[in-house]
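As described in the Methods, two query proteins were run sequentially through the folding procedure within a single session, without resetting any intermediate state between them. The first query and its resulting structure tokens are shown here.
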Amino acid sequence: MGRRLGQHFLHSRTVLDALARHAQIVPGEPLLEVGPGAGALTARLLEAGARVTAVEVDPLLAQALRERWEGHPHLRVVQADILKADLSPQALFGAEAPYGVVANLPYYLSTPLLFRFVRSRRWYRRLLLMVQQEVGERLVALPEQGKVYGALSIAAHHAFEMRLVMSVPPGAFRPPPKVHSAVVSFVPRPARLEPELEARYLEHVKRLFTARRKHMIGTLRRERPPWPPEALARVSPELGDRRAEALHPDEHLRIFQMLACP
């Protein structure tokens, strides 16, 4: 079932040890593991002293994890869809303190889950995520990287300080995927917009990149609901004939604030 759900199980001891090391685990700290699969990374996290809540969508894998670590005081297995699960610290760990996230993300849910992590970043101290190499490059991209730069890049830079930690070859997995993977470290940034306004900003950026090659001011004029004429007049001199793909993440935020916060 794991392969049907897009999972490739990590088995390389070298990579598992590196992930545990880069996670910088403090004994006793709470960690969320997404998609633990057969539990290879789970074992390393427990050995390092973490208190792990593992969220696994596959009921057979979740049951196997429970049986393998039955009675372990530092492991809780939750059988749930991570895109729908309650990710608050209270729900996962019974406490309000922020927690860490370590995960080998199935490729098919990387982008929607990353946007969810952006929206709920107040709950995390840090994240260490393994994603498809292409997704990792998109996350950290800036305009000078060309077409890999997009809405996901802007959302990620808005919410996190990031760095590419390592590349992982297909042979580190069973079955091996057809592409390389990348491990990315994330540290949440302080919120710069109120939650409702931030949600609007993220949707705004997504819409801009559906027409990334068009002049941005023209795209803004066609947005629905429409921006007030006076708001468009404020940003028009700064934008000129620039396209969305040419603006740095901080520029996108400043333009949005000029539009939405007169």
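Immediately afterward, the second query was submitted; its sequence and tokens are:
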Amino acid sequence: MRTYNFLVIIFCLAITFGSSIPGNSIPELYIFGMDKLLHVLEYFIFGYLLVNSVSDKTQYPVYLSFVLGICFALIDETYQLTVIGRSSSSYDVIADAIGLTLAIIFNHKFSKILG
């Protein structure tokens, strides 16, 4: 589980780094909703790492990982307000929540197969 702890920290730093890029340096995504798909994918990976990281620390890893993931998404969106040319979006947080939920479901199904 120590590996997952490390990967969660690295992934949080990567998300924060991506959020620190000024808006005028990010290429326009002309495909409708492409940025939301990226949020879902990003938080799917984050959620998978997170649920595996906390699974041995609580009786409720699903709830804890979801709450921690949503809190990080909200903090990240708030942080983006301080970056030049970036804005915050509640739709991004919804996409993040979808990614977290899919990761938790995937992890639950996958662990049943292996366990």
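The chain has one domain: 2-114. We note this only descriptively and draw no conclusion about the first query from it.
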